[in-house]
Please model this.
Amino acid sequence: MRIVLLGAPGSGKGTQAALLKEMYGIPHIATGDILRTEVAEGTELGGKAERYMNEGGLVPDDLILEMVEARVRRPDTRRGWLMDGFPRTLEQAEGLRIMTERIEQRVDAGVILNVDPEVVVRRLSGRRVCESCQAVTNVSEMRAGACPLCGGKLVLRPDDEPQVVRRRIEVFEQQTRPVFEYFREHYDVVDIDASKTVDQVTEALRRGLDRYDHS
Ligand code: AP5
Model:
């Protein structure tokens, strides 16, 4: 099963992917998470990506395409994958189509998480990430300011500062929203109302993805 999760920053891609990967037993490939690890480890790719990320812009397509192909070729993707945060430009979408043909894989569906901009801003201003285990939570769910999973310290992601969030939303509208139409032309698409609660969105996803082979 190969699924691409598409949606604005803060639409809930990471939250839902963390649940779906358990449900379907396939790896969650999040380009944002891979890039943050590269930055934290001080790699060459991390050095090139950091400035774009901190300013709310996109990392160049050639770097992303190379990084995604290397990840998708790893042996744990034999039964499929769940892509989150990629593709984000028409060039990346075309790159995905060419890459999957070349390595003889098929994308089953794109899932579009639809959510209003004001919901996005509210969610991102409340998002906190655990410094120890990287779990994502929201101020509305926090108990005494500690990670609900490991008790670690919760921090604001640098690109969740309000001025960077505004820039990320602009970039999404200009460069990523056109990818939705590309997907409608080339793949099956499942539309989800992502403004509902986490559980309601998960249930809608489960129903929407039921028809695809996850044996
Ligand atoms: P990335 O990490 O991919 O960020 P993003 O796409 O902007 O997505 P987010 O992680 O902000 O949001 P999400 O949709 O995963 O929401 P979440 O589940 O966390 O990318 C970061 C940067 O890396 C980019 O800006 C770019 O620079 C670079 N990059 C990455 N990929 C790239 C690519 N392909 N090309 C070029 N550059 C790339 O939820 C958000 C909050 O809402 C959380 O607090 C959560 O608890 C809460 N929440 C979630 N769902 C619900 C719900 N249903 N109800 C209430 N609260 C909810």
Observations:
- The longest helix spans residues 162-186.
